[in-house]
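We both want to read discrete structure tokens more fluently, so let's practise on a single case. Would you supply a protein for us yourself, any chain you care to pick? Would you write everything just below, so we can both look at the same thing?
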Amino acid sequence: MRFTSTCPQCGGTGQVGKQCTQCNGEGRLRKTENLEIKIPAGVQTGSRIRFAGKGDAGILGGPPGDLYIVSTVSPHPFFERVGDNIYCKVPITVTEAALGAKIEVPTVDGKAMLKIPPGTQSGQKFRLRGKGAPSLRATTRGDQFVEVKIVVPRVADERSKEILRELARLNPGNPRNEALHF
């Protein structure tokens, strides 16, 4: 990081006799320094983080200003953040959707179990309370919303086809009639 610091020869006054030769009377020197800064959990793109006293030196030996960092958070390939909530899509099987299941889903903290109730439809969303992003303004966390997408298996063998035909005979109905009100 490049910033100005108080001239050590003149103490920021710009004068040693008539003029400080080290800073040419400015009272400050240009300096490059690596700073290790801690970014708090929960920052979002556009969050401003203030580091008191880490900015440029003040004029005439005044105290240094503050350093402000405006964050840019790269998108994640799986999770999407909206406010303090996290969203993701998870595939489930037809059997898990129809009969219900407990599945393992990824969270920003690792894995969690999610109960899929019987009769779950593709696109249905479930909430994992407190599994979202930490809030910068509160001690709570957001939630994680998991949208399930039913993945239909590729049926290659005759036995599987016959089982599906039997399922269709036992459960007649046209979902398009119900959804589109024909």
The beta strands are 2-6, 28-32, 48-51, 67-70, 80-82, 85-93, 101-107, 110-116, 125-128, 144-151. The CA atoms of residues 59 and 146 lie 54 Å apart.
